[in-house]
Design goal:
By secondary structure, the protein is an all-alpha fold. The protein has one domain. About 70% of the residues lie in helices and about 0% in strands. The protein contains five helices and no strands. Helix 3 packs parallel to helix 5. The protein is globular and about 45 Å long.
Length: about 120
């Protein structure tokens, strides 16, 4: 029996836009999230969108050079807005006691943004 051919076309990074790149990594991050079914997990469940956003932005910033030069600054601007939006939501949700993992996600995404901006 012949091997089934893939119906997916190859990804051409040089033709990507920031939105497509972010969507690709959002899908990846979404598939990697596993939350415990505990009372403590409820607050985390409320933060799923922010965690996914921070992960997706971090991953996307690692591949910013794959974008057309004209799309890179737009990507940086959007990344900054998304990081700040997620950081603010997490801070409101947790107050002064932001879990270490979430604080690290915020710091990692922010560091990736600074690094990508310097590389531009």
């Amino acid at each position: 029996m012949p091997a089934e051919e893939s119906s997916f076309e190859p990804l051409h990074p040089e033709q990507l836009t920031w939105a497509v790149l972010l969507a690709r990594w959002t899908d990846f991050a979404r598939s990697a999230v596993v939350l415990p079914a505990t009372v403590e997990g409820q607050q985390m469940r409320d933060s799923v969108a922010d965690v996914i956003t921070l992960q997706a932005v971090w991953f996307s910033l690692q591949h910013l050079e794959e974008l057309d030069r004209g799309q890179r600054q737009i990507g940086l601007d959007r990344a900054g807005v998304l990081i700040e939006r997620s950081r603010s939501a997490i801070q409101r949700r947790y107050g002064e006691v932001v879990p270490d993992l979430m604080r690290e996600l915020i710091e990692d995404a922010s560091a990736a943004l600074r690094s990508a901006a310097k590389a531009l």
